[in-house]
């Protein structure tokens, strides 16, 4: 459909919209008032990763369109863990660890959103503020009566676990009720009228919408994004080296930049729309580049995505490092670094310690395949003792895309 509001036009044109509960109603509301909208993030690790980035960018676009983003930290729901499309229960986290993760995660949002007291300024809340205070019997009586077990069992997120005969605990089964209750509380506390999330959250979002209608008679809305996959069908953000973390203390700036630079040619346009603020006509121009020129578009993508998440200096340094490493055959300052002790280190251990391989076994296989180079020369001996003079540096490479610096102690 054709949207009239700036909000839905922006989200539609950039590829964020997969499902909407009431497109006409939300379109009309967004035309006449500031719409507070939220997305929840459970603090299961010290950093979010690129799999969360489309949600963060959606909050950013909400604010760019003049509306109010609400970031919900799952200090309460994080004690349970979302079972949606998981094969097994998440490991339960202690309250102290959850608090540490929340504090660590907060930092990244300040780079994407403007926080404050204005009508469209973002706010951050923790659902532990209301979930921790719930009394069990009153909650069952007042809220539980609005949920049908039959319907809950029909949701794909639950059905898949049961069909595979994988355990789904009563604790996890409560998650969808608590998430629905979040929407009810946010509509009361902050006038929230929109919940957004990935397509896997559709059932949970609909639950919250129905709960708000049944309990308070409030009309609220839901919007989900498409499942993000690479051109080859794999899930975006899943790499051989592990998660692509948003916090720099979890992943070096160069590795973050390089993730975007390594984008498949077919995905450049989509990623530019979703993960940068570049104007659409400029994106149209960039994605039409052919041959080696598409690499220029990938550098733009890497710079813009890194700038948003890590800052201008990180983007400049990462690009400079890439040019020195790949074009000039040198070593940029932003490459991952490993200090080699005076007695030296076995090559196989160096590959693992610097983060190129997940285990010494994997390192041995890569070395045997001829994929590992020391100072740009292929090395075939996994037990080679690598030494580096004090104050000197050597270059370690795995394949064409992973490079690091070995420094002498």
From TrEMBL:
Belongs to the class-I aminoacyl-tRNA synthetase family. TyrS type 1 subfamily. It catalyses: tRNA(Tyr) + L-tyrosine + ATP = L-tyrosyl-tRNA(Tyr) + AMP + diphosphate + H(+). A motif ('HIGH' region) lies at residues 43-52. NCBIfam families: tyrS. This is Tyrosine--tRNA ligase. It holds the Pfam family tRNA-synt_1b. Homodimer. GO terms for molecular function: tyrosine-tRNA ligase activity. It is found in: Cytoplasm. Catalyzes the attachment of tyrosine to tRNA(Tyr) in a two-step reaction: tyrosine is first activated by ATP to form Tyr-AMP and then transferred to the acceptor end of tRNA(Tyr). The keyword Kinase does not apply. Gene3D superfamilies: HUPs, RNA-binding S4 domain, Tyrosyl-Transfer RNA Synthetase. It comes from the Bacteria. A motif ('KMSKS' region) lies at residues 235-239. ATP binds at residue 238.
